[in-house]
Amino acid sequence: MSTLMNTYNRLPVEFTHGDGVWLYDTAGDAWLDALSGIAVCGLGHAHPALTKAISEQAARLIHTSNIYHIGTQRELADKLIAASGMDCVFFSNSGAEANEAAIKLARMHGHNKGIDLPTIIVFESSFHGRTLATLSATGNRKVQAGFGPLVTGFARAPFADLEAVKTIAKNNQNIVAVLVEPIQGEGGVHIPDPSFLDGLRELCNQHDWLLMLDEVQTGNGRTGKYFAYQHHSWLPDVVTTAKGLANGVPIGACLAAGKATALFGPGNHGSTFGGNPLACAAGIATVDTLVNGKYAEKAATMGAYLQQQFREKLADQALVKEVRGLGLLLGIELTQECSILVQKALEKKLLINVTSGNVIRLLPPLIIQQAEADLLVDGVCQLINAFAQDTTAEPA
Ligand code: PLP
User: Fold this and answer.
1) How many CB atoms neighbour CB 107 within 10 A?
2) How many Å lie between the centroid of ligand 1 and the Cα of residue 205?
3) What is the pLDDT of residue 395?
């Protein structure tokens, strides 16, 4: 019996080191990584700027406590503020924890207005994390099953349905905020029409709700801007991020702007590790490299190239329902369940993901070059074509 708690069905491969978009297994074989540790390693593996920053900081100071000043934390906050246009930052250790901070901000906002049972609008097919509050906010019954009673204070609407949100607004006087992913990642790479987020911004302004964007997956250059809301012309009140923020060193952030900045005071929130010197040094090196290397812009160009290649090469493949994405958050939706493709890809030493049952999700490092992108296109198209030949399954 394994000494690890049984929380993952792990794939039969183990990696010992990496270099750029490549991972190397215990036998020394190279694998093309089109998942980046699930949208984490935007700068790929063993990036020299990261290695240098982490090892120098580790040699100097790893941890003190948030009861003292931390220079690297202030520096990372300044860089995130410059990249985002937001006003202030709380550092956590993960995406779920960043969302917990956002949920607490929303509740505090409600209580300050005299709302005793503050309620946050969330969406079907969303994913916000595995802590009790964030799994309660998540729009996926599988994530919640077995963990009731769920945290209350969430009202759910179908994703990208502004009218449904307006109906909730009419019927529920306890709404204080909306928590939404600008693009649903785990839910199947769903990209709403821009008018949905624009409309949410307007509704939040009208009702004095906080617009809280979960950019844990979409942030840090992934969609072609530093944050996905920067494809629009407004700021959210709260934005959370994690994953790509320190390229694999655990850190999360909850950023606030305007009226959301003054909601917490000392004692309202905290974390032992959150924003410690080591994590922040990694964050500084990551944000600097992403911004100075224009990797968001590169993600936009490479993402458009990949989409065009997939569309062209899969044009006659009846199994493909849609190719979609923004930047390097890409989805290829098939007409049927295709989770088996993750295993099939292992035979090609290719790391991909299938989410929502029938959506091949690709999240390659933002540093991917065209030759590597071409290898990815060839590998994925071969997988889909072979699957089409093999398959006898019914349409999803
Ligand atoms: N929010 C979104 C949109 C995510 O995609 C994820 C993770 O996949 C999370 C939150 C949870 O982040 P973490 O696993 O770092 O807690």
Assistant:
1) 20
2) 27
3) 52
Is residue 261 within 8 Å of 89, Cβ to Cβ? no
Report the DSSP beta bridge partners of residue 238.
212, 256
The verdict on 221 and 348 lying in the same domain is no
Domain of residue 274 covers: 48-292
Taking only the tens place, the pLDDT of each residue in 115-156 is 999 999 999 999 999 999 999 999 999 999 999 999 999 999
Q: Which of 243, 247, 249, 254 to mutate to test the pocket of ligand 1 (most atoms within 8 A of CB)?
A: 243
Kindly state whether residue 206 falls inside one of the protein's structural domains.
Answer: yes
Question: According to the 3-state scheme, what is the secondary structure of 309-335?
Answer: HHHHHCCCCCCEEEEEEECCEEEEEEC
For ligand 1, atom 12, the nearest C-alpha belongs to 95
Contact 215 CB / ligand 1 (< 6 Å) = no
User: Is 142 labeled as catalytic in the residue annotation?
Assistant: no
Q: Are 190 and 260 found together in one domain?
A: yes
- Residue 142 CB burial class (10 angstroms; 0-12, 13-18, ≥19): exposed
Chain centroid to CA 244: 8
Query: Domain holding 367: CATH number?
Result: 3.90.1150.10
- Ligand 1 in reach of 92 Cβ (< 6 A): no
User: DSSP string spanning 323-384?
Assistant: EEEETTEEEEEESS--TTHHHHHHTTTEE-EEETTTEEEE---TT--HHHHHHHHHHHHHHH
- The alpha carbon of 352 and the centre of ligand 1 are apart by a number of angstroms equal to 18
Domain end residue (candidates: 270, 292, 314): 292
Say whether 161 is catalytic. Answer: no
Q: What is the pLDDT of residues 289-348, one digit of tens each?
A: 999 999 999 999 999 999 999 999 999 999 999 999 999 999 999 999 999 999 999 999
327 and 368, same domain (yes or no): yes
Q: Which of 189, 213, 217, 238 should be mutated for ligand 1, with most atoms under 8 A from CB?
A: 217
